[in-house]
Structure prediction request, 115 residues.
Amino acid sequence: QVQLVESGGGLVQPGGSLRLSCAASGIIFSIHTMGWYRQAPGKQRELVATISSARNTNYADSVKGRFTISRDNAKNTVYLQMNSLKPEDTAVYYCNARWASIDSWGQGTQVTVSS
Prediction:
């Protein structure tokens, strides 16, 4: 059974930083493309960043230069370092694992950027 468990969300002031983690189990982590997506109230879920099994990364234009995705295959964990956070980054952030067009999702973690 696939489990993706996110952690690290919370309330942060504009300009602050947060680091999200996603611990995976029930999958061969190293062969999966891992990603972070987010969904703000009233909006569709959108891609934030992905990292392939070869560690190739892809970012949404809105987070380039501010967010960094990384993975630790020994710990079956993917991270999202978020710097220079803006109010528009407020959303529920979801972890995704993809292999052979099969998607698995975590339950999400809330990130709120507000003064």
